[in-house]
Amino acid sequence: MSLRTFERVGAVGGVGVAPAATSAARSGARVRTLMFVSAVALFLLALYPRAINLTGYLTTDEGNWMGRTALFTKALTTGDPAGTYQSGHPGVMTMWESLIGMRPERALALVEYVRPDGLEKAPNYLDTLHLARRTFAVMTALGVAGIALLTWRLFGAGVALIAGVLLALEPFFLAHSVVAHVDSNVTVWMTVCIFSALIYFWAGGAFWFLALSGVAAGLAFLSKAPSAFLPLFLPVIALGAMVARRQLADRAAWLRLLRDGAVWGVLALIVAMALWPSFRSDPLGTLSQMIDYTETVGGSDHE
After folding, report:
1. Residue 289, Cα to own-chain centre: how many angstroms?
2. Partner residues linked to 224 by β-bridges
3. Would you say 242 and 257 are in contact if contact means Cβ atoms under 8 Å apart?
4. Exposed, middle or buried: residue 262 (CB in 10 Å: 0-12, 13-18, 19+)?
5. CA distance 32 to 262
6. Is the CB of residue 149 less than 8 Å from the CB of residue 62?
7. Whole-angstrom distance, CA of residue 151 vs CA of residue 164
8. With a threshold of 0.70, does the pTM exceed it?
């Protein structure tokens, strides 16, 4: 058999699948490139209107969070875990982001001014506040891009791009994400948590989507108390997927669900303990303070 004949037979017999595999690889690479470019474009679209407003209006609550960040930083630097509990919100992510933006030296310089009508008298207070806001703008813009990519995995490119543009420019969300406060954080992390769980349980996502959901749950818990919704809603997502696949009588499916729930909870717990010394040193006492705070303040009038 000649070499030319051998090549023809090989192509007919299956060797010719190589060009098809190459074509599929190229197509996958193009999709990944399009997703990356889209994510960068959405990040910039979300960042620009936030970045140009960092020196805009002031809000009453920002003074509270600047003071809490100062005391939070002092507790971190002096090794005082209990001192890192500053609010039942708990607003830990707000304090971390403010600290990253203003830097520790500026945060510590505010400590002696943490008193009623005191922060405004601190040297360069407005500049420090504007620096603290930068992290919120960047993190929210990253959140918009990340949520768009998760949406792409769930619903396709068209829905993802529309959702990304709407999230980037939605006025209420935009306004909340250029101030040092809790709401933009809890919005981003709860959304990432739920969408990642939907991908894992409903769309055949890889195990790392479950891990991402657990990490995001921990960050949401550190952001604001309404994240308590997540451990109640995630089982609904998982059980709904089992019902849709008719796996309620499948013992192996139940074992996987228990494993997944344990992994999700452990990851959320690790994140919460790693970033909040108060919760790490006294988890039950910290939770008790949060519950008392929520019962006293949640849903009630404010000054």
Report:
1. 24
2. 90
3. yes
4. exposed
5. 32
6. no
7. 9
8. yes
